[in-house]
User: Fold these one by one.
Assistant:
Number 1:
Amino acid sequence: MKRRIYWSLCLISLAALLFSTAASLSLYYHFYEQQSQADLRRQCNALSAGALASQDPVNFLREYEPVDREVRITLLDAQGKVLFDSEADEASMENHKNRPEFQQALENGNGEASRVSDTIGISSFYYAVRCGDEMVLRLGRDNQNILGVFLQIFPLDLLSCAVLFVVSVFIARMVTARIVTPLTKAADNLESLQEIGSYDELEPFLLKIRRQNSTIRRQLRELAQDRDTITMILENMQEGLVLLNEDKKILSVNRSALGYLHPADRQPVGKPMVALSRNMELLDAVEEAHRGSSATGILEQGERKLRYFVNPVLAGQAVGGVILLLLDVTEQYKAQKEREDFSANVSHELKTPLTTISGFAEMMKSGMVKEEEEIKDFSSMIYIEAQRLLTLIDDIIRLSRIEEGRQELEEPVQLLQLAKEAASLLEQETEKRNITMEVSGDAITIPGNSTMLYEMIRNLCENAVKYNVDGGRVDVTVQSLNNGYVKLTVKDTGIGIPKKDHERIFERFYRVDKSRSKQTGGTGLGLSIVKHIVERHHGEIHLTSEEGKGCCMEVLLPKSFRI
C-alpha cells in the first residue's frame, strides 16, 4: 500500500509538471506571437506613414534601417508588382496580387496572413497596409524566430521541471509516510486504537475496529471460560474419554482414560492410538469406527473391566474423527456376581431346612413313624429347622432393607446404652457357659438408626459368645476419639479366625467352620449385616484375629456425617 501511494503521488507530480510546463509554454508562445504580430502591425503603420511623408517611398525604404533586423519589408504597387523588398531582388520576385494580405489591404486598408514563403520557404506572418492609393506596404516576420526564442528557454524549463520533480519525490515520500503511519500504527496496535492519532476520515473505520476488538475480546473470554469448563468436566469425569482426528491421531485424552489404560507414554496427544493402548480388540474397534461403524465391548485391564463405546464423528458424509468412551464396570460385574452367588446361596440355605422339614413331614404322613417318642423327636426336628428357616428369612429381609438404604439416620443414639442392652440379652448364654462379659466406655451420642446399630452390636456380641471357649471373656468398650470418630470394640478370647479367612469373613453365607455354625444356628449373614450397617453409617470395621487366640472387632463411626 505504501509503495502504491508513493508511486501514485510521484506519477501525479510528474504528470502535473509536464502538463503545466506544456500548457505554460503553449500560452507563452501564443502570447508572444500575439505581441509580435501587434508589434509588427504598429511598425507597418508607422513605416507606411513615413513612406507617404517622404514623397519617395522606395528610396525612403532603402535608406531605412529597421531596429528589428528580423522584419522583412516589401512595397507593392496596386497591381501586385514588387517595388521594394528588404531581403530579395524585387526584379526576380513574382507578382503578389494574389496574396491574401495584399487583397485585404486594397479592399479594407489592411490585411494579414500566415503561410510558408515561396521565396525563402519559411513559415511567416505578414501584415499589409495601403500606402496612399497606388501602393501597399507589407511587413513580414519569420515564425521560426519566435519558436527559436522558446527553444532557447526550453532546457531551462526542463531543468526547473526536473528540480521540481525531485522536490515532489521527497514531498511524496513525506506525504506517503504521513498517510500510512496512522494506518501502520493502527495495524501494530489493534488493542489500543484509542491512543493512536489519525485523520478524521479514518475515525469511522477505527471506531468499527474498536467495536470489533471489544466483541472479539468478549468472545475470546467466553471461549476461554467454555474451554476451561469443558476441560474441568473432562478431567473430572470418571468415564475415560479419547478423541481422535481423521488421521487417527489422538486429539485429547482425559485423566480417567490414562488411569484406565496405563499407557507407557503419559503424553500421547498427537500420536497414534497404539501409543495409548495395544489391545487389539480396542484398536480394531477404533479402526472400524474410522470406517464409519460404531462398536462396543468389554475390555479387561487386569482385575478391572471396562466397557468401551467407539463412535465415528461425521462431517457431512465423511468421517472427521472418532470418540472413544470408557466406563469402569468392575463394580457392576462384582455386584452381578454377588447377586448370582447370593441367589445360589439363598437357594441352598433355604433348600436345606426345607428338605429336612419336608422329609420328616413326609415320613410322619406316610405312617412310617408310629411311636409317640419318635413323633416328638421328628416334630422337634421340624420345629428346629422351621426356626432356622425363619431366622434365615429374617436375616435376608434385614440385609435387603439395609442395602435399600431407606432407614433414617438422624436420630441420636447412645452406643454405650445399646451395648449394655445387648449384653443383658446374652446373660443367660454367658452364665450357662461361664463367660464373663464386661461393657465399659464413654457415654457419647452419635446420629444414626438405633435399631440398626443395636442389631450391629448384638451380632458382634453374639459371635463373640458363640465362638468363645467355656469360661472365656468378652470385653465391649465405647471410646470417643479426637479425630471426630467413636470406636466400638468387641474383643473375645475365643477360637479366633484364621488369617486366610479374614478377607472373606464379611461375605454373605461365608462360614469359617460350617459344622460349628450349624451347631450354633448361624446363618452366615451376621457379619455381612454388620458390615452393611457400618457402611450405611459412613463408618469402618476392622478385624484383628489369630486362630486360637481370640478375635477383636473395631468399629469406627463418625460423630457427625458432616465431618
Number 2:
Amino acid sequence: MISVESLKVEFGVKPLFSDVSFVVNDGDRIALVGKNGAGKSTMLKILCGLQQPTSGVVAIPNECTIGYLPQVMKLQDDTTVKEETRKAFADNTKLKKELDRMQQEMADRTDYESESYAHLVEAFTQAHEHFMMMGGDNYEAEIERTLTGLGFERSDFGRPTREFSGGWRMRIELAKILLRKPDVLLLDEPTNHLDIESIQWLEQFLQQSAKAVVLVSHDRAFINNVTNRTIEITCGHAEDYRVKYDEYLVLRKERREQQLRAYQNQQKEIADIKAFIDRFRYQATKAVQVQQRIKQLEKIVPIEVDEVDNSAMRLKFPPCLRSGDYPVICDDVRKDYDEHTVFDHVTLTIKRGEKVAFVGKNGEGKSTLVKCIMEQIPYTGKLKIGHNVQIGYFAQNQAQLLDESLSIYDTIDQVATGDMRLKINDLLGAFMFGGETSEKKVKVLSGGERSRLAMIKLLLEPVNLLILDEPTNHLDIPSKEVLKEAIRTFEGTAIIVSHDREFLDGLVSKVYEFANGQVKEHLGGIYDYLRAHNAETIHEALNENIKVSASVASVKTVSEESKPSKQNYAEHKEQQKKIRKAEKAVKESEARIASMEKRVHELDELFMKPENAANMELVTEYTSTKEALDKENENWLLLSEKLEELRS
C-alpha cells in the first residue's frame, strides 16, 4: 500500500533519520516505536503527506486512502455530535443529492424516447450502483455503532460539540476517521483520551475491521493487543521486527547485546592498530606496515550501539512527615450539580501507604471526588483528611501554574534537593527534556510538554499523599516506567485516576469503581478487578447497580444501599439476565458485521484485477453480501435500541 525508500529528514546538522526503507502492506498492524525525539510523529506526518522529507521517496497508489489522527488537531464547534460525525460520509451524501436531482429530472421529463433521456437513465443507473457499493443510506447505523463504541450515549448524539471537552471532541474526530474506512490508518497516541472500555472497543475494531494500521502509542497493553509488527527508529535509522511489542523487546535486547560485543571487538581492534602505529611510526623499516594500518583505520566504519534510555534510573521521593493512619475518610459523601446527582452515599477509607485506583466511564465522578478531597468544590456528607497529610495533586490545569519566565532546567532546579540536584539532566532526559531542550522557556512549551514538566516538579516535592489524575497521557513507555517505579517505592499514600491498565498493573492494591452514582471497592489489582467480571464485559460491570456478594468474594459495596426484598431481587436478577442476553446479541451482530465488512473489502480487492471484472460469481456474492450487511446494520440498530431500553 505504502512504499518508503531511502527516506531522510534533517532539521539541523545531524539528520533526524536517514536511509529508512519499509513497506506497509494490507493487514499490517505496525507499532512505530523509539525514544522521544527519534521522529515517530514526523514519520506519520510524512506518510500522510503533511510534511516533506529532505530526500527519499514515499510511494502511495492513487486509489489508496489514508486516515490520520494527530495528537492535537483543530476541532469544529458549530454542529451536533452526529452531524459532525456524518461528515465522514460526505461523498455518500453528495452522491445522494445528485441521484435525487437526476431522479427528479427523469420524473419531470416526458421525452422518454430521446437519446439524452437514455443517457440520463444510464448515468443514474451507474451512479446508483456506485452509491449502493459505497453503502447507500445505511451509514446511520454505522455512525451510532462507532459513537457508542467510543463511549457516547444516545442522548449525546444531538448535543452541540462545543458542550464536550477536548478529549471527547477528539473521539468524534477518531470516529470520523474510522467511519471513512481508509486503506491505511495513521494513529498518533489514539488512547490518550479514551477510557478502558473505549480502548478495548478500539482494539477490537482495529483487529477486525482495519485494513492497515501504523500507530504510535505509549499504552503497552494496547499496542500488544493490536499490532503484529514493530518498526523502531533508533540511531537515525529504522529496524523492522515482524513481531508484537513484547517479542520485539526480547529481540531488541539480543540485538543490542550483539551490537555491544561487536562494538567492544571493534574498539579493541582500533586500539591495537593505533598502538602499532604509535610504536612504529618513526621506524623506517616499518613505514609500509604503518601506512597500511593508517589506511585500515580510515576504512573502519564505527559501529553504533542503540541508545539506552534512562528508564532504569531510580527516582526517589524526598522524605516527608509521616501522615495519620487514615489519610482519607469519606462518610456518606454526595455531590449534585443542579438536578444531576454525580454520586451518593460514598463511604470509604484509604489507609496510610495504600496505592488505590479510581476507574470508571468518563463522567461517573472520579475527578469530581478528587476535587472534593482537595476541597475545590462543595459537597454534602463528611470527608476527613487525616493528621499531617501533605497532598501532592496532579491535574491537567497543574501545567498552567508553572512560571513561564523560567527555563525547563530552572523550573526543576528550584524544587530539586539533595542528590537529585546532581541528576537533573538525567531526570529531564527520562521525561523527554534531554539535551538543549532543557534550556527552553516554559512559555514556548506545548500543553503536553507543560504537563510532563509539572509531573516532574510534583515528583520532587515532599508529600505523603499523591493524587494523580490521568498522569500518563503525555508520557512514553520509559517515562511511565520511571513514574511507576517512583510511586511503587513511595512510602506514602497514592490515589491514581487512570485508564492505563499496564501502568496500574502491579502498582495498586485496591480499585474503586465509579458507576451509576455509586462507588464500589474491589480488593486486588487492576487485572483482579477485570477478572472479577470474567464472563462479563467492562461495560456491564460499570452499569450494574447491585452485585451478589457471593459471586465475587473480593468485592464489597462501600455505598450504603437499602436491602431489596426477595421479590425486588428476583425482578432485578431477571432484568440483568435480559440485559446480558441483549448485550450478547449486540456483540454477535457486531461480529457478523465485521466479518461481512472484511469479505466486502476482499471482494473489492478482487474486482480491481482485470481478470475478475466479468466474474458473475463474484458479482453475485458481492451483491448478496452487501444486502446481508445492510440488513445486519439495521438489525444491530434495533438490538442496540432494545438494549438501551432495558438499561434505562
